[in-house]
Amino acid sequence: MGLDDRDALRTLRDAVDPALGSEELIRTFYTNWFAADPSVRDLFPPDMAQQRGVFAQVMTWLFDELVAQRADEPVAFLAQLGRDHRKYGVTQQHYDSMQKALLGTLRGHLVDSWNDRLAEATHDAVALFIGVMRGAADAEKEPPYCDGTVIEHIRATRDVSVVRLQLDRPLSYHPGQYVTVQVPQWPRRWRYLSPSIPADPSGAIEFHIRSVTGGMVSTAIVGETTPGDRWRLSNPHGGLHVARDDGDVLMVAGSTGLAPLRALIMDLTRYGVNPRVHLFFGGRYPSDLYDLKTLWQIASQNPWLSVTPVSEYNVDSPWARDYPDVTPPRGLHVRQTGMLPDVVTSYGNWGDRQILICGGPEMVQVTKAALIAKGAPPERIQHDPLSN
Ligand SMILES: Cc1cc2nc3c(=O)[nH]c(=O)nc-3n(C[C@H](O)[C@H](O)[C@H](O)COP(=O)(O)OP(=O)(O)OC[C@H]3O[C@@H](n4cnc5c(N)ncnc54)[C@H](O)[C@@H]3O)c2cc1C
Ligand code: HEM
């Protein structure tokens, strides 16, 4: 039976499901694992709450797929996860100790219903998950990460920085993708950031970072980054894209959500003919629209691009004069005042467009809902995952 035993797999699925109260099981698993193999503990951040939540969700999805007797997607996902996990310094010994700890914890938790069938399914599922991850990690020849040196840090506004790096080797990614980044101020706290330029053969790369209130890594990047800092980058992910043969495009960017859309727009400039692209770029104050001059430059040479600046408030706050002037020369659409979703939908439902939305999770959700409410087809709307 093993992986064919759907009843046993369902028991395992329910045991790890956070919605059914798996918190205690997952906590016990990590405690057991760290006790059995102390070398693992230091790889994780001190606060494990988020990790426990993500791990429980992933395990629930994996068991769901096995219950439905689907293996292709889980295997592809686990192989990618295994390759990605190399950046944490995961070794074969860690996989051994995890396998033992996970099996032991599941057995202890399900002791009342434990029997040969459940034992076999548990053994086979855990062996599959870990076997695929370690096998893919082992087979991967590319280095797990790529280091680079900060060469310029521009404080663009009160809370947005533009950081440019020279990588030790070029990093390959598609325009619109994001990468994981570790900065020296917060070792082991990897965060997603989206390069704001297409992959560069000489290894130049640029990021736009907004410090979020109470945010650990983003506030450190904006407040403390200096030239010479060494950053570590890994694993491009994500599928934001423009299909050049699939009609005109609407892009909606909130603050540094501009970065991946700008990379896509820059990539389009390689072609003479493109679909029309209308970009709404929003911020709270007019001075938050930190990159209008670059957008003006691109639009002035590429007639397929229109840019509408949007700010919530019509006037600037006093801190604006401490930062570079963002006002572009004449040529872009007149700046609109209002909330981004309201302004975008006041132009129509954009139902015939490919729609790409980028920004903070709330802005993306609200803008998407507003567009759908106006009649935009959900399947035409793209955005990145809303959390790390
Ligand atoms: C696919 C993807 C791509 C991303 N690309 C970029 C990028 O190019 N530039 C960039 O500046 N950020 C980007 N982010 C956000 C970034 O990865 C971090 O989540 C963000 O910088 C906060 O990290 P932190 O350590 O400062 O905050 P944390 O300490 O992790 O969180 C602190 C608090 O801030 C909240 N928070 C987290 N992210 C946001 C957010 N974006 N807006 C508002 N509140 C938030 C959390 O819910 C939490 O309450 C991206 C996120 C994803 C998922
Ligand atoms: C069944 C096997 C495993 C699964 C399903 C799994 C799943 C995950 C997931 C989903 C994440 C979230 C972030 C990311 O995608 O990188 C993560 C992070 C992580 N995992 Fe695993 N993992 C497994 C095995 C391991 C092993 C063997 C190690 C060895 C030490 C490990 C160490 C880590 C570390 C250090 C992090 C980063 C935590 C952080 O920085 O917040 N994982 N894991």
TrEMBL record:
Domain FAD-binding FR-type as annotated: residue spans: 143-243
Q: Which UniProt keywords are present, listed alphabetically? A: 2Fe-2S, Heme, Iron, Iron-sulfur, Metal-binding, NAD, NADP, Oxygen transport, Transport
Q: Does the keyword Iron apply?
A: yes
* Catalyzed reactions: 2 nitric oxide + NADPH + 2 O2 = 2 nitrate + NADP(+) + H(+); 2 nitric oxide + NADH + 2 O2 = 2 nitrate + NAD(+) + H(+)
Q: Which InterPro entries match?
A: Cbr1-like_FAD-bd_dom, FAD-bd_FR_type, Flavoprot_Pyr_Nucl_cyt_Rdtase, FNR_nucleotide-bd, Globin, Globin-like_sf, Globin/Proto, MRET
Q: Where is the Globin domain?
A: 1-138
Which cofactors does it use?
heme b; FAD
Is Transport among the key words of this record?
Answer: yes
Q: Name one GO molecular function term.
A: oxygen binding
Q: What's the domain of life for this entry?
A: Bacteria
Q: What is its EC number?
A: 1.14.12.17
Stated family = In the C-terminal section; belongs to the flavoprotein pyridine nucleotide cytochrome reductase family. Belongs to the globin family.
Indicate what this protein is called per its UniProt record.
nitric oxide dioxygenase
